[in-house]
Amino acid sequence: MDSLIQALEAFYQKVDENVHKLEELNRARLHCKAGCADCCLDGITVFEAEAAYIRHKAESVLKEKPHRTGKCAFLDEADRCRIYAFRPYVCRTQGLPLRWFEYNESGFKVEYRDICPLNEKGPDLQTLDEKYFWEIGPAEQELAELQQKFKSGRLKRVPLRELFYK
Question: Residue 45 contacts by C-beta under 8 Å, 6 or more apart in sequence?
Answer without folding.
Answer: 157, 158, 159, 160
